[in-house]
Amino acid sequence: MKAKNDAVAAENTARIREFEAKQVQIKAKGEADAAIEQARGRAESTRLEAEANKLKLVLQGEGEKARLEAEIRALGSPGTYIQYLHARAQLNWNGQQPQIVAGNGAGANFILPLPTMNTPPSAERSQSPQK
């Protein structure tokens, strides 16, 4: 009788161990599946964000193209449009000589003054004192 009880106890212990092992296996598979789904979600999110950025850039480019075409068409030709931009830049100029700052802040920075532009004769006359 004791031998039979010991055999039944050993069989029950074996079943318990088998059940515990299956539970560990199921838990590990569930964690692995969850990690895979999270990775898929991140990949899909990254892909959708990249597509949205691409579409945004395309639409901005198309809008910029339409704006430039309308401005050029309103002025008649690309040459006239360039002259308009040049005149507008001259109106916005504050009289200061532009400077370029080069460097990333990690070392010596250089400030290089740009050469002065030749002023047209009409501008020189308006700047000279009247006699």
Alpha plus pi helix count: 3
Structural class: mainly alpha
Helix content: over 70%
Number of strands: 2
Radius of gyration: 39 Å
Q: From N to C, what is the helix and strand string?
A: HHEEH
What distance separates the N and C termini?
135 Å
Number of domains: 1
Mean pLDDT across residues: 84
> Can you tell me the overall shape?
elongated
In terms of DSSP E residues, the strand content is 5-15%
Low-pLDDT runs: none
Described by strand count, sense and barrel closure, the largest sheet is: 2 strands, antiparallel
Main-sheet strand order equals 1-2
Could you outline the blueprint of secondary structure elements for this entry?
Layout lengths: L1 H74 L2 H15 L6 E4 L7 E4 L7 H7 L4
Antiparallel strand pairs: 1-2
Helix pairs in contact: 1-2
Description:
The model has no long low-confidence stretch (mean pLDDT 84). This protein is mostly helical and 131 residues long. The protein has one domain. A two-stranded antiparallel sheet has the order 1-2.
Keywords:
mainly alpha; two-stranded antiparallel sheet
Brief overview:
By secondary structure, the protein is mainly alpha-helical. The protein is built from 3 helices and 2 strands.
